[in-house]
């Protein structure tokens, strides 16, 4: 086989990777909302990328569960139903709990520092009532624990599930009561991991995840009720 045929166009790969990061971040931040159509022509205009690059990136985001392709409608941002939330939170709870257990057993210094920093940032963000910072701090907290687990397979699975719940996190973290409860939970999880108490760290993460599911289901129910009311009014 001619080895020249294995050469990769680095510039194209880098461009598509950057495009993927850009569109993924736009979805995770709520710039594109669940159910919103993603029109290729508009995305090309917004990003300056070619239609082929945009199309390939959308297929990648579909594989990640962030985009759904519907016949005769095209791509749109994935909307999460109550059933989806139960499934995703169920898996995330197992992953978070296991990651916390492993992290508490290993207690890698870098992870311990990152967990403490994320907790402090969450406290500061909550004091400033900055929802965007609150969400970012919460993400940093859980990613630090996942990395501290030392298990790359777990890390990859966690990121996939965690990303699909981005919108619900954005909405729940806009609620002061959820933020207050989150700070208390993060502080307890941080302390359990620092103390090397693996069973407690795991249990606390699962409890915090279950509370997140309760909030998410409440948000989805309120949204559905609002949509029904608007439809009747229309």
UniProtKB/TrEMBL annotation:
Database matches in SMART domains: FCD (SM00895), HTH_GNTR (SM00345)
Gene Ontology MF terms: DNA binding; DNA-binding transcription factor activity
Alphabetized UniProt keyword annotations: DNA-binding, Transcription, Transcription regulation
CDD domains for the chain: WHTH_GntR
Superkingdom of the source species: Bacteria
Annotated ranges, domain HTH gntR-type: 13-80
Keyword Transit peptide among UniProt keywords: no
Annotated protein name in UniProt: FCD domain-containing protein
Protein species of origin: Teichococcus wenyumeiae
């Amino acid at each position: 086989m001619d080895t020249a045929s294995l050469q990769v166009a680095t510039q194209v790969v880098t461009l598509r990777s950057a495009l993927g990061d850009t569109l993924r971040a736009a979805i995770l931040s709520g710039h594109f909302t669940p159910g919103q159509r993603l029109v290729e022509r508009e995305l090309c205009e917004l990003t300056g990328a070619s239609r082929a690059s945009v199309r390939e990136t959308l297929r990648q985001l579909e594989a990640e569960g962030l985009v759904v392709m519907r016949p005769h409608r095209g791509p749109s941002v994935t909307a999460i139903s109550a059933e989806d939330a139960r499934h995703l939170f169920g898996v995330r709870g197992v992953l978070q709990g296991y990651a916390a257990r492993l992290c508490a057993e290993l207690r890698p210094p870098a992870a311990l520092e990152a967990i403490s920093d994320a907790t402090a940032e969450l406290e500061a963000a909550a004091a400033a009532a900055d929802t965007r910072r609150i969400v970012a701090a919460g993400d940093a907290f859980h990613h630090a624990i996942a990395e501290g687990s030392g298990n790359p397979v777990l890390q990859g699975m966690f990121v996939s599930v965690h990303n699909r719940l981005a919108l619900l996190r954005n909405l729940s973290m806009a609620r002061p009561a959820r933020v207050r409860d989150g700070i208390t939970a993060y502080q307890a999880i941080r302390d359990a991991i620092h103390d090397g108490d693996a069973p407690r760290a795991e249990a606390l993460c699962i409890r915090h995840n279950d509370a997140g599911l309760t909030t998410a289901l409440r948000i989805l129910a309120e949204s559905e009720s609002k949509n029904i009311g608007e439809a009747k009014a229309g």
